[in-house]
Amino acid sequence: MSYKKQSSVDMMFPLKKEQVLLPGESEYNKEMQIWNGAVKYQPAMIIRPYNAKDVQSTIWLAAEKKMPLSVLGGGHDWAGRCLNDKGIVISMSRMNDIKIDPLQRVARVGGGIKAKELIAAAAPYKQVAVTGTIGCIGFAGFTLGGGYGPLSPSYGLAIDNLLGAELVLADGSIVYASEATYPDLFWAIRGGGGNFGVVTSLTVRLHDEKPILSGLICFPWSEATTILQRYAGFMKNAPDQLSSLVGLIPAPDGTPMLFISPTWYGEAAEGQRVINLLKGIGTIIFEQVGPMQYGDVLAMFDQHVVIGRHTSMQTRWLGDLTADVIEEIVIAGSERTSPFSMLNFHYFHGSPTRVPLTSTPFGLRKPHFMVEILAVWEPDDVANGQRHIQWARKLSQKMAKEAFPGGYPNILGPEEYDQIEDAYGVNLQRLREVKQQYDPGRTFNGIAIP
Ligand SMILES: Cc1cc2nc3c(=O)[nH]c(=O)nc-3n(C[C@H](O)[C@H](O)[C@H](O)COP(=O)(O)OP(=O)(O)OC[C@H]3O[C@@H](n4cnc5c(N)ncnc54)[C@H](O)[C@@H]3O)c2cc1C
C-alpha cells in the first residue's frame, strides 16, 4: 500500500477539534477513566479517530514528535497498557460500527466496540459470537490476546473465530490481514496482542444461537475443599456444551463465597440434567440457573466490575486442581487482605484444544484452568495496597510449581518476566520475527513480547 507522509500541521488538519482532548478538559478525564483506578498516567493528548485515516495521521504525529503511543479500547487491561505518560493515546471509542451479514454469519466491527454491543447487534438474527464473560470488555483487546469465554468449549477462543482485521501499522500503512493477505501478520495478531498496529476493524465469525442455560450457584467457603475436588473431576469429563467459571466472590457482607457459574449451550433438557448434577456437589446457599439470552449472561457479573477500585492481577495456567492447589486456594480465600479480592478459574476444554498449537501464537492448547487472582481494594485503602498485592503474588507463587509454564498473555503483568518468557512457548520465535518485520521501532507496546 502506498501512502504519502505529511508534515505535522497537515497531520493534525484532518482531525476535528472534538477529536483532540487535552489535560484539564472534562472530556479528557471521562475518556481516561479506565477500570483499574490504581493506574495513574497523564497522557499529553487523547485522540479519538473516526476512521483509519485519522489513526494514520495520529501515528505519524506521534512518530514526528517522538511521543509514546498507546491504544485505548475498553479500558479493562488491569496493567493500564492502554494509557501512557506524556504521550498520545488513541482512543477507539468512536470506531464502533457493527455490520452483520447474517447469511454469511460474519460481523465486521470497529476496533472500539465492546462485547455486549456485538452481541446486541447479532441477537435480532439469532446469532452469537465468542466473547469473554463480561459485556463491557473491549472486543479488540480481548480478542488480540486470545479470548476465553462461555462459548469457547463450543467454538474456540476469540482468535479462532477471527477471519481478518484492518490495521494501521507503525509506518502508517493501512492493511487488511487475513489468511489470504498478510498471513504472517494475521497469524501474529491472533494472540500476540496489540503489538503490531492499531486494529481499526475486525471480521468475526458468527454462529447460529442455541438454547442457553446459565446462572450462578453459590456454596459456603467452608465446603470449598470438597466442592473444588468434585468440581475438578466433573469438568474433566464435561461435554463441549458446558463451560464454567468457578471461584471466590465476596458475599454481601464481604466474606468469601465459592461460586460456580455454568453455561450450557445446546439441547436444554440434557443441559438441565448436567446442571442438576453440578448443583449436587455441595450445600447450596444461593442458586439461580435457567434459560437466558447470551446478552444477559454477559451482564451477570456487572455488579462485581466496579470502575475505579484499585486492582492488581496474577494469572496461572493449571492442568488440574490437585489436592495441594486446592489447599492453597482455600488458605488464600480465608487469608484475604481485602473483602473485594476475588479468584476466577476459567476451564479451557473442547473446541479450542483441537486447534493446532502453531496455527496461532496462543501458547497452550491442552485442557487447563486459566486462573485469575484479583487483589482489589478501595482507593481510600491505598496504604494497604502492597499487602493486597502480596496476597495475590503469594498465591500465584504457591501455584507455580503445579502450573504449566507461562500464563494468559492478556492478564500477565509487564513485570512477570519468568512467565512472559514462556507464555508463547514454541511460537515465541516466530512472533518475535513478525514483530521485527512490522514494528521494529516498538511503536506499539501492548502485551510484552520478550
Ligand atoms: C473484569 C474483567 C473481566 C475479564 N474477563 C475476561 C474473560 O472472560 N476472558 C478473557 O479472555 N479475558 C478477560 N479479561 C481480560 C481482558 O480480555 C483483557 O484485559 C483485555 O486486554 C481488555 O481489553 P480492553 O480493550 O477492554 O482493554 P484496554 O485496556 O483498552 O486495552 C488493552 C490493550 O489491548 C490493546 N488494544 C485494545 N484495542 C485495540 C485496538 N483496537 N487495536 C490495537 N490494540 C488494541 C492495546 O495494546 C491495549 O493496551 C477480563 C478483564 C477484566 C478486567
Strand order of the largest sheet: 15-12-14-13-17-18-16-19
Major sheet size, sense and barrel closure: 8 strands, antiparallel
Which structural class do you get from the secondary structure elements?
alpha+beta
Beta content comes to 15-25%
Overall strand count: 19
Going by CATH, the architecture of the largest domain would be 3-Layer(aba) Sandwich
Envelope shape? globular
Number of helices: 14
Bound molecules: flavin-adenine dinucleotide
CATH-derived topology of the largest domain = Vanillyl-alcohol Oxidase, Chain A, domain 3
Description:
This protein is an alpha+beta fold and 450 residues long. The chain folds into 3 domains: 10-93, Uridine Diphospho-n-acetylenolpyruvylglucosamine Reductase, domain 2 (2-Layer Sandwich); 95-208, 2-Layer Sandwich (Uridine Diphospho-n-acetylenolpyruvylglucosamine Reductase, domain 3); 212-423, Vanillyl-alcohol Oxidase, Chain A, domain 3, CATH 3.40.462.20. The protein is 28% helix and 24% strand. The protein has 14 helices and 19 strands. It has helices at 8-12, 26-32, 52-65, 115-122, 139-145, 152-155, 183-189, 224-236, 268-279, 294-297, 323-334, 385-400, 417-423, 428-438; strands at residues 20-21, 45-47, 69-72, 88-91, 98-101, 106-110, 127-128, 162-168, 174-178, 198-205, 207-208, 212-220, 242-250, 256-265, 286-291, 310-318, 342-348, 368-377, 403-404. The strands form 4 sheets. The chain has an 8-stranded antiparallel sheet with strand order 15-12-14-13-17-18-16-19. A 5-stranded antiparallel sheet has the order 5-6-10-8-9. The protein has a 4-stranded mixed sheet with strand order 1-2-4-3. It is globular and about 65 Å long. The protein binds flavin-adenine dinucleotide. The site of flavin-adenine dinucleotide has 36 residues, from β3, α5 and β10.
